[in-house]
Amino acid sequence: xxxxxxxxxxxxxxxxxxxxxxxxxxxxxxxxxxxxxxxxxxxxxxxxxxxxxxxxxxxxxxxxxxxxxxxxxxxxxxxxxxxxxxxxxxxxxxxxxxxxxxxxxxxxxxxxxxxxxxxxxxxxxxxxxxxxxxxxxxxxxxxxxxxxxxxxxxxxxxxxxxxxxxxxxxxxxxxxxxxxxxxxxxxxxxxxxxxxxxxxxxxxxxxxxxxxxxxxxxxxxxxxxxxxxxxxxxxxxxxxxxxxxxxxxxxxxxxxxxxxxxxxxxxxxxxxxxxxxxxxxxxxxxxxxxxxxxxxxxxxxxxxxxxxxxxxxxxxxxxxxxxxxxxxxxxxxxxxxxxxxxxxxxxxxxxxxxxxxxxxxxxxxxxxxxxxxxxxxxxxxxxxxxxxxxxxxxxxxxxxxxxxxxxxxxxxxxxxxxxxxxxxxxxxxxxxxxxxxxxxxxxxxxxxxxxxxxxxxxxxxxxxxxxxxxxxxxxxxxxxxxxxxxxxxxxxxxxxxxxxxxxxxxxxxxxxxxxxxxxxxxxxxxxxxxxxxxxxxxxxxxxxxxxxxxxxxxxxxxxxxxxxxxxxxxxxxxxxxxxxxxxxxxxxxxxxxxxxxxxx
Length: 600
What we know:
Largest sheet: 7 strands, mixed
Distance between the termini: 55 Å
Radius of gyration: 28 Å
Shape: globular
């Protein structure tokens, strides 16, 4: 195998890629022969999909193989895409493979090193610099004349990385298009974001490239939303600083920097978001809340918008909700016995169920999943929320409006006249709401709500502090569930690991005895998980069941220690113990267990 720097090597052809795939056992001999024999047909197909102009578009051998959509060996439901093919081709070519991560693109480097037409024509993407070396993503690792030209233009030595052509072109489109749009927005210094253009359903411009004829601010906002959706973000943060605006995305519970924008575009972009969310765009001194409904691939997506005045301007957070992906009980991460116990609670005809945990621990998602399991034509489900997180037709959802004297407690009083079967109270914040919720539970209604406590047992003390009489709490409480969210190992790259005795001892709880023994795994990082080793999150639960003995202790006003001892005798596991069980079954890692249960 010749190194990438060998000037004699120029054969990055279909035959080269097919041979590499066959040697790596990614395809069999019959598939290899089929690919070679259909080269002209595949070439025509790829060219047609990309405009059909041979003068403007060079078809790469990786595209030809990907166009045949061959199944992945051992995974018949998956196909050989450009990423998988490029990984094999890079190894055969002797150059490093690089998966382009949109969150790690250096926009100034990309836009200032090479002109857009040159970069697109030759499929080149500057990645980073190291001293006098320019790391360059390429689609052809053997185009040495091109590398020499780029070296002359940039004044640096070139180190090529092989990347998927589709990733390079998409990154070029995004970075150059977004840069131009932001630049136009700065030039225009938009003061009127267009109040007459308000639409309740915001129709995004799709996947098209940013166009010069579009309004720059509107275009930039649409791009930011599409970008966040593509990255599986749950929250978008726009944070004004002294000289710039920083955009960060929360993905799988962790914030990632995404863009740095000129300070001049912050006000018009914030105004556009506020306009779409039906907020007062002239009010910048007080916090505001609003909602945006938009569409993504035919599916409606809701965003909850919040503004907060800071030292350098209005900080905005947009929380993204996809109603089509509303979680069910089976998707929360329950173990079998935990789900059975929770289902027994929500299956009771009346009583109080509480979910506790800090902000961002998934409490509302759990309550929505429970309500979805209960809702039906024969049941009246009513919720009181501040704000309404996700709109769903199966519930009657009430928005708290303090200005109209409609708070949680007032809404509860009125809901009792609406013949409810099941009531969800977004949060118990004060004594009046707590006592009203208890009364609802005692008078034949199933009530679900949340509390901000670190563990399940703490909910008892919290309700006492809010003035709930112990005997009433004992009569109405069905159970309390504390929860956290841990990142889960990426299924594509996780592999078995061993934990040292010191690491296991640091958990301070025993490893559970499993029939097949513990299985510790950890994602090593791959293209599917952005090299983090994690993809997705799962719930970890502490299930506090109010059985007969526990009820008696609550009614007697027993302290938390005595109540916890009785709950433990009934089989309750602490949050750390539940998290360690997920560690032992390969769901998550030791670092996640420690990080998410440090306060328990």
